[in-house]
Amino acid sequence: MSHTAHIPSHRKPRRSASKLALRAGVAGGVLSTIAVAGAAGPANAEPVTETIEMPTLGSLDTELASAVSASAEASHQEALDLSLRAQEDAAIAKAAQEAKKAKAEADRKAEAERAEKARAEAQERASRTQARTQLSPASSSSDSGSSDSGSSYSADSSTQAPTGSAAAIVAFARAQIGDAYVSGGTGPNSWDCSGLVQAAYRQAGIDLPRVSSSQSSMGTSVSLSNLQPGDILYWGSRSGSYHVAIYVGGGMYVGAQNPSTGVVERSLDWDTPSGAVRIL
Q: For the segment 148-197, what is each residue's pLDDT rounded down to a tens digit?
């Protein structure tokens, strides 16, 4: 055999790189498939699925806005309730204060009226007592030395109506009967004793002083037994009388007595005057 003769080699033929890569890829894919299948469990097992609902941002914003709105409304309502309660408390306190003030004022007026009534009643009692003392039989002279307050009186029996100035004075005095007595009153619907006498004499064109002590100091003293309509009757001393009235005839006089009686017509026997003066 020739040295150059072809001897078949026992080496395996080299595989190409592309075939090797192809085989490696197939093997890797098979192994991966097996691994995945094994991890997933048996081939016939159903996949387990679970759905978790997550809140969306839109629903969270809506709920938050509703909560904030409800809280704000509650706070506003509470503030309104507190304001209303405060106003009610203030109104109650004010009403109580005004009621207390009104009661105090009413009590004050009532007390003043009671005091005035008591004073007038005491004055009236004192005048009657003093008149009886001055008209006792032992008394025979007046402040002026003439027999006026000390003399006993007798009602004139004449029924003849007064005339002239006396008639105007008597008519005015009687027209005021029923009017109220008010200290310091000068008419037209309320009087005190000297206010009524002054207004009556003004009807005859005669201006008298305002107070009783000055009125009883005017004119001429006359006896109670010689009275004429229009004469001024007084209680107390002539220069210090505390009450006056107008003699209207028939043993009667008209005067503004006190707050409880007002202007009345009374008999001389009811409250005998201390004396009388004549101005006409």
A: 434 445 445 444 567 889 999 999 999 999 999 999 999 899 999 999 99
Residue 26 has, within 13 A of its CA and on its CB side, a CA count of 5
| Tokens 């090797």 found at | 20
Query: Buried b / exposed e across 6-36, counting CB within 10 Å, b at 16+?
Result: eeeeeeeeeeeeeeeeeeeeeeeeeeeeeee
Say if pTM beats, i.e. exceeds, 0.90. no
Q: Domain containing 202 — which CATH number?
A: 3.90.1720.10
Tokens 């000068």 locate to: 186
- CA 173 and chain centroid, separation: 41
Domain that holds residue 223: 133-278
Please check whether residue 105 lies inside any domain of the structure: no
Helix, strand, or coil (residue 166): helix
* CA-based nearest residue to 120, from 132, 112, 108: 112
What is the number of structural domains in the chain? 1
Tokens matching residue 49:
């699925």
